[in-house]
Amino acid sequence: MDKPRQGFAGLWNISFGFFGIQIGFALQNANMSRIFQSLGEDIEKLPGLWVAAPLTGLLVQPVIGHMSDRTWLGRLGRRRPYFLAGAILAAIALFVMPESPAIWFAAMMLWILDASLNISMEPFRAFVGDMLGKDQHSVGYAVQTAFIGAGAVVGSLFPALMEAMGVANVAPPGQIPDTVRYAFWFGGIALFLAVLWTIVTTQEYDPQQMAAFEPAGADAALAPRALAEHSYAGSFGWIAAGVVVILIQVELALLREVLLLGALLIGYGLANLVAIALARRGRERNMLASIVGDFAGMPLLMKRLALVQFFTWSALFIMWINTTPIVAQYHFGTTDAASAAYQAAGNWVGELFAIYNAVAAVSALTLLPWLSRRLGQARTHMVGLACGAIGYASFFWLRDPTHLIVSEIFIGIFWASVLAMPYAILASSLPQAKLGIYMGLFNIFVVIPQLLVATVMGSIMKAFFPAEPIYTMAFAAAALLFALLAMTRVEEAVSAPSIR
């Protein structure tokens, strides 16, 4: 039994909530470094403060994916309960964030905000697969990408619009400008209303209907890899690796954030030990055992895309952390976070982010389909990765702030490809009944590189390029070249959809 095809209105309603979610992410990405520095934090410590965002995604998305696969709350459905809960929590966090009295409070609110956004966002990825047949997966993710770009434009531009309306863009030392404060409040309202729109205008298929949509024999594809047969040796290997990282941090006196990386390796090893022990006692359906088993049994195509995601998101996180300090220092001539020039740079970064997101929104519905029909999905993504590398490298040569618009056009094409092509390639290879958990697990390859950047990049910059944040863009460009190389290993499955 095939799922009914969705028209334009249906596609719009399914993904409109992502418009609001992305407003929240855009405000976070474009303004958190600015908020931390406005509250008095040093630039070298920014990666450590940003670590909250990827860490919450790492912990939240697999759990929410696992739970949403097994949820059914009548009229509220399967994924929509998580949309609603995350939207409420994120809206509250956006209202409270600009009132942060100190750095520690802002870091805590970043943790809460990112966790809440992930609670809403993760089920949205699976929601497209739930509501659409495989022949519409690609157009569904393309529409979702367009809403992501549009939401990011609105969220990125709002501080500059507030300044144009006469709202103060400069605050006394230790305080957050009113432009940022009002932008976060607006974002909280917009996020909640957009997610509510999707909840009200869509109706999910119940478990019986979803079972009818599954092809014959699909249950066999859902069986997780037999954890009970796994050796404990691999788990102890992860624990040993974590201990080594901690010893290196202590011996070389690296930034304390490196300790987190070691702790995560140890934590993963311990989780494997527990999961294997549960499986050997016949408790394979336990949440931890299920998540670890599904991770071990990922489809081959998903594994091939993992390395691409690793390098891609390393580059993106470097950009989000460092663009404001780079533009302020090299294009506006200041490192003083309390100065008017710095705040002007912060607004310009918001506009640059809006530009690349606008380019992404348009590219997702125009350029990517055109390239995909001619080159195929894998080569289209390779073009996108190359555009990203060009955009990041151009920061070294362009010194007029307005010329950075050219950089953002290349980055926008890259961003559109990141948001659409991996999911379009992957969607049809995933078991439909486990879209939630597999989308959550795929996020691991988005989060781990961000954690590595947050824990390691600060140490690298402090040791080799102190007070020279521009060199982070060189690392970002190099990471995308490695991603492009890794993409050559991705072979598209026969059933992988094409954007059209």
Rg over alpha carbons: 22 Å
Query: Number of DSSP helices?
Result: 20
CATH topology of the largest domain: Growth Hormone, Chain: A
Strand composition percent: under 5%
Low-confidence stretches: 218-225, 493-500
Helix proportion of residues, in percent? over 70%
CATH superfamily of the largest domain: MFS general substrate transporter like domains
CA distance, first residue to last residue: 23 Å
The sequence of SSEs as H and E is HHHHHHHHHHHHHHHHHHHH
CATH architecture verdict of the largest domain: Up-down Bundle
Largest beta-sheet characterization: none
| Overall shape | globular
Question: What's the level 1 CATH class of the largest domain?
Answer: Mainly Alpha
Arithmetic mean pLDDT: 83
What would you call the structural class? mainly alpha
Structural summary, described in words:
By secondary structure, the chain is mostly helical. It folds into 2 domains: 8-224 and 297-487, MFS general substrate transporter like domains (Growth Hormone, Chain: A, Up-down Bundle); 227-287. The chain has helices at residues 8-38, 46-50, 52-69, 80-96, 103-131, 137-164, 178-201, 207-213, 218-222, 233-252, 257-280, 287-296, 300-331, 340-365, 367-375, 377-393, 404-427, 435-442, 444-464, 471-487. Helix 6 (137-164) runs antiparallel to helix 7 (178-201). The radius of gyration is 22 Å and the shape is globular. The model is unreliable at 218-225 and 493-500 (pLDDT under 50).
